[in-house]
Design a protein that fits this description.
heterodimer, A: mainly alpha, 10 helices, 0% strand, elongated, B: mainly alpha
Chain lengths: 276, 336
């Protein structure tokens, strides 16, 4: 009973936090208090007030508007990464598990190698070549996370393939595509949701890091990582401005992490017994 | 008769496990070498194919055709790509990463210089992370149904979600701007000859780096310990009259350390990337800071050398940790 409560809490908090960020992003499509890019040197570094709820930054841009617009960049990145990661990772994982032994082995080794490569390092190299952009960041992050997804998926598919119901399906002369559709996908669905949620969290952290280093989203597009980078320069005068983008990143990443944990406990019946 | 069979069986089992160990080590070495070559080929190709003419990049757009030809011959840019790669790899394996095409500096030398900042930073951060993460993780596991255990676990969840650079910025605000205890960044020019001021300037960066790593380690230590607590041998130990923490000390620590150590091996990649970020936040003249600068001035030969070296370091550490684990824990040698 205790466990169920804890899991529900994870899920609940996760959903609330993700919903909060999504609402911010959706809202920013239709409305922000000011134009996030509007520069107004007269009110540089203004303290929070009724006209500027979270104050302004050094160029006099409204912090709240930038925060809202930044959430859009962040969530779009996360969304793209999740889509690329899941399609690439799951296809590779299922493909490797279903193919002949030698290919399976090669796939395992290749996945291991990609997994060992430091992803952000390669994002930096990619940025060096192609010039920094959100797109470069998305590609670099996706390649790294999809290797992890492929690894987990391959393992899970291998377990399902060993089960009696797959044997039965084979005996009934089902083809591979049908087996994947009817037996494998439903059985690994829970794990896929969990991994998608984890990939989103990683993507958001990585994107904000790259943008902070000046290798991700390029100005003038608003981004949480860039907001932090610029606020760092006048930390001595106004440390509060650095607070908001950081909090926004934490809430969103924590939200996706909790969502993953909550889903894991809600969807995986074997975990309900023992773990808190 | 029975005894003979028994000895035989034991002998064959022993041979078998030795064979397993050798196989395991061979497999790990193949993977290590394979990934090293793949990764360096990847970096090489990425940097060579896409950016266009390196000679042009070095000499500028006004360079005369003769000068371009001369530079190309000098750096062997006319050779087929595969030959260029093999040459570069051959030199790299001997510790010679060549010279920067832009500045002419010896790349190996530069990396070695910068490593005197980056390696202590990473070492200090790992030590800090281990010292705090493992006891806290075990404590929260022992109390995993109680409020204090849950609180610690929630804090670690938060620690994972916080971006490293933000922690750095916050620590600077508190300890450098407000209380002025530690420097907000930079590193003594004199290097380690003035070691106390060096250490002082590494305190905040190492703490920043350790927080994220520690939070991750703590979660693994916690779940590994919870696993141990639910084992039969742990219950037996408790039944003999040991308290929970005694039983954990005697039976649990070693068992729960196995997954933690393997996670540490995987984390070395995140540690190095974290070091790049932390060096940027605190303006430390380390490898990461150098890499970012080289990227911005497009010094490709140097970027290539730096990335190859860091990747090799990552592979080497995870290889060593895997080998140690294989020796310690027979289970991990079994092919998945």
């Amino acid at each position: 009973m205790n466990k169920r409560k804890a899991s529900n809490q994870n899920l609940l908090f996760g959903i609330c936090m993700v919903a909060f960020s999504s609402t911010m992003a959706l809202l920013s499509v239709f409305w922000t208090p000011y134009d996030p890019l509007e520069i107004n040197p007269d009110i540089s570094l203004a303290k929070p007030s009724w006209s500027h709820l979270l104050g302004t930054d050094v160029l006099g841009r409204d912090v709240l508007s930038n925060l809202l617009a930044g959430s859009r960049t962040t969530l779009i990145t996360a969304f793209l990464v999740v889509i690329i990661t899941m399609s690439l990772g799951v296809t590779t994982g299922i493909g490797a598990a279903l193919s002949p032994r030698w290919f399976n082995r090669t796939a395992i080794y290749s996945i291991d190698i990609v997994l060992a490569l430091p992803a952000v390092l390669f994002a930096i190299v990619l940025a060096a070549i192609r010039g920094p952009s959100t797109f470069t960041a998305v590609i670099a992050i996706s390649i790294a996370t999809s290797a992890a997804v492929a690894q987990v998926t391959r393992r899970e598919v291998a377990v399902v393939l060993n089960s009696d119901f797959v044997l039965a399906a084979k005996a009934c002369n089902s083809n591979k595509l049908k087996i994947v559709q009817q037996h494998i996908l439903p059985n690994i669905r829970a794990s896929l949701f969990i991994q998608a949620s984890g990939a989103a969290a990683i993507a958001i952290l990585a994107e904000s890091t790259l943008s902070y280093l000046g290798l991700g989203t390029t100005p003038p597009a608003p981004s949480w990582g860039r907001m932090l980078a610029s606020s760092q320069q006048y930390l001595l005068i106004d440390p509060v401005v650095a607070l908001w983008p950081g909090l926004a990143i934490i809430i969103t990443v924590l939200g996706f992490n909790l969502l993953g944990d909550g889903l894991r406990e809600a969807l995986d019946p074997t975990l309900r017994k023992s773990r808190s | 008769m029975m005894l003979e069979m028994h000895t035989q069986l034991r002998q064959s089992r022993k041979n078998n496990s030795l064979q397993n160990l050798v196989l395991y080590i061979v497999r790990r070495i193949t993977l290590f070498v394979g990934s090293l070559v793949t990764a360096s080929a990847l970096v090489f190709l990425l940097l060579r194919i896409l950016p266009g003419d390196l000679a042009q990049a070095k000499l500028g757009i006004d360079a005369s055709p003769e000068a371009l030809t001369q530079t190309r011959t000098e750096f062997g840019l006319d050779d087929p790509l595969i030959l260029q790669f093999l040459k570069w790899l051959g030199h790299a394996l001997q510790g010679d990463l060549g010279v920067s095409m832009l500045t002419g500096a010896n790349i190996t030398q530069e990396i070695a210089n910068k490593a005197t900042v980056t390696l202590p930073l990473i070492g200090l951060a790992s030590a800090l992370a281990l010292i705090f993460a493992i006891p806290l993780g075990m404590y929260s596991a022992l109390n995993f149904r109680r409020r204090r255990g849950i609180t610690i676990s929630a804090v670690s969840q938060l620690g994972i979600a916080i971006p490293t650079f933000w922690v750095g910025v916050i620590l600077v605000t508190i300890f450098s701007v407000k209380f002025q205890i530690f420097p907000s960044g930079g590193f003594p020019d004199a290097g380690w000859s003035s070691w106390s001021s060096c250490l002082e300037s590494l305190v905040l960066p190492a703490t920043t780096l350790a927080l994220g790593q520690g939070a991750m380690l703590m979660r693994f230590a916690r779940s590994a310990t919870i696993d141990v607590i639910q084992q039969d041998y742990f219950r037996t130990a408790r039944a003999t009259g040991l308290t929970r923490s005694q039983a954990l000390r005697i039976h649990g620590v070693r068992n729960s350390l196995v997954p933690v150590v393997s996670v540490l091996g995987m984390q070395i990649a995140t540690l190095i990337v974290g070091a790049i970020i932390v060096e940027h936040v605190f303006a430390l003249p380390g490898i990461g800071q150098m890499l970012l600068q080289d990227v911005s001035i497009r010094d490709y030969t140097k970027v290539q050398g730096t990335v190859a070296t860091t990747t090799a370091a990552v592979f080497l550490v995870s290889f060593l940790i895997d080998a140690i684990l294989g020796l310690l824990n027979p289970k991990s040698r079994v092919n998945q």
